[in-house]
Specification:
The complex is a heterodimer. Chain A is α/β, with parallel strands linked by helices. Chain A has helices at 45-53, 84-94, 102-108, 124-132, 134-138, 154-169, and strands at residues 7-17, 20-30, 33-38, 60-66, 69-72, 142-146, 173-177, 188-195, 198-199. The longest helix of chain A is centred in the C-terminal third of the chain and has 16 residues, at 154-169. The chains are: A alpha/beta, B mainly alpha.
Chain lengths: 200, 222
């Protein structure tokens, strides 16, 4: 498996949404390995990940990233009306990547029999699995996972832990925002604590 | 990957989803069919066959059909945050507008074909210049979606967008609707020069609003 070199940073980043500062003067540097983002509800964890993904405009500060990032948010980000395979194929084609591993990746996430079912007919957990299969189909150097364990059953949680460990061993930057799953602390190279938009 | 390839991928994704969940196209076809059926009952057969009245009602119905289909398309994107998945891709913001406009133009072409054939058959419209009419309809179908897509994107995060989009879009669509109605009317009544002039204006509207959309949608999507 190829090793990847990537770096990502926010410097003095402030994000204001609906006239409310969500992140205040945040400076974070991400290196290879697992970084855990923790903090209470409304602390700004999601906005921090979205800022790294370039999904929110910075009112102040800068964002730098070498290599593409895969951001998977609270919801699976799959288009209803398409199958799991079609959704993942779209993402892979859009990035100009090879399509050959899609069926295998979905199979590995327990969706071997549901490749061609429209995603709206899958359960919430199955949709979450389909979206997490993108970790393997797109293989990007930066992974930004926001509460990725939501909706997953025990085998799904175990599969995700393996995927995170694998990405970490590949030298990828893996950022996970989660309240629970303290067992990930052992894998983490660094921790970010967010509270009221400020990174401790 | 080239920009056009990305737009092509968004078009394919959109049309595939529309085929599986044809809510937008069904609503639009139903709307235009009901309007054509009611037209002669409301205004009477003689007025309904007027070369000015029938095209005006047809294009008004098509404008509402465009709004319906566009709203449904973006509603589907907002479920499960699929739109965010697309926007997070490199080049996704730029491909969004082009892909949506092309896909909606294809959907609208189908709606216009159904509505147009129904109008011609049910109202027994005498058609002097069929090729000119096809040209006007094609350019009209291309001219409507850019305006509506821009307005839907601007109102995307508003709860009242179902009410706001028609209010925002219809005044901007008036020049296109006038040009399309007059062009179709000219084609029906045998005025070739008039039909081509209005068709040219429709083309200009399509180009102007496409450039505008390509410029402001990537920024507005934030």
């Amino acid at each position: 498996m190829r090793k990847v070199e990537a770096s990502a940073s926010l410097r003095g980043a402030t994000v204001i949404l609906d006239d409310r500062p969500i992140l205040r003067d945040v400076s974070v540097e991400l290196g290879p390995g697992l970084t855990l983002v923790r903090g209470p509800n409304g602390a700004g964890k999601t906005t921090l990940l979205r800022a790294f993904a370039g999904l929110v405009p910075l009112a102040r500060g800068t964002r730098e990233m070498t290599g593409d990032a895969l951001y998977i948010g609270h919801r699976p980000m799959l288009l209803r009306g398409l199958t799991a395979r079609e959704n993942l194929t779209f993402y892979v084609r859009f990035r100009g990547l090879a399509e050959d591993g899609i069926a295998n990746a979905l199979d590995a996430w327990g969706l071997g029999n549901d490749l061609d079912r429209p995603v709206e007919r899958l359960s919430a957990g199955e949709r979450r699995r389909a979206s997490l299969a993108r970790i393997e189909t797109e293989r990007l150097p930066v992974l930004l996972l926001d509460e990725p364990f939501a909706d997953l059953d025990d085998p799904g949680v175990s599969r995700l832990r393996d995927a995170i460990a694998g990405a970490r061993e590949d030298g990828r930057i893996v950022v996970v925002a989660t309240h629970a799953h303290l067992e990930l602390d052992d894998l983490a190279a660094s921790h970010i604590a967010v509270d009221r938009g400020i990174v401790a | 990957m080239m920009e056009l390839d990305r737009i092509g991928l968004v078009v394919g994704r959109e049309l595939r989803a529309e085929r599986r969940q044809p809510d937008g196209i069904v609503a639009a076809v139903t709307f235009i069919t009901v309007l054509v059926l009611l037209e002669s009952l409301i205004v009477g057969p003689a007025v309904a066959r007027d070369a000015d009245v029938a095209p005006a009602l047809f294009w008004l119905a098509l404008a509402f059909a465009t709004i319906l289909a566009t709203m449904r398309s973006f509603d589907r994107e907002l479920e499960d945050d699929a739109l965010e998945g697309l926007v997070a891709l490199p080049g996704g913001r730029d491909a969004l507008f082009g892909g949506k406009v092309v896909a909606l133009s294809i959907v609208l072409a189908l709606v216009a074909a159904v509505g147009g054939i129904l109008s011609l058959v049910l109202l027994d419209l005498p058609l002097a210049l069929p090729f000119h009419l096809v040209l006007v309809v094609v350019l009209g179908v291309i001219a409507l979606p850019p305006v509506v897509v821009v307005n839907v994107v601007l109102a995307l995060r508003l709860r009242a967008r179902a009410a706001l989009v028609p209010i925002l879009a219809l005044p901007v669509l008036v020049p296109q609707l006038v040009a399309a109605s007059r062009g179709a009317s000219a084609a029906i009544s045998g005025d070739a020069v008039g039909a081509l002039s209005w068709a040219g204006l429709l083309f200009a509207f399509a180009v102007v609003y496409s450039v505008l959309g390509l410029t402001i949608v990537p920024a507005a999507i934030d």
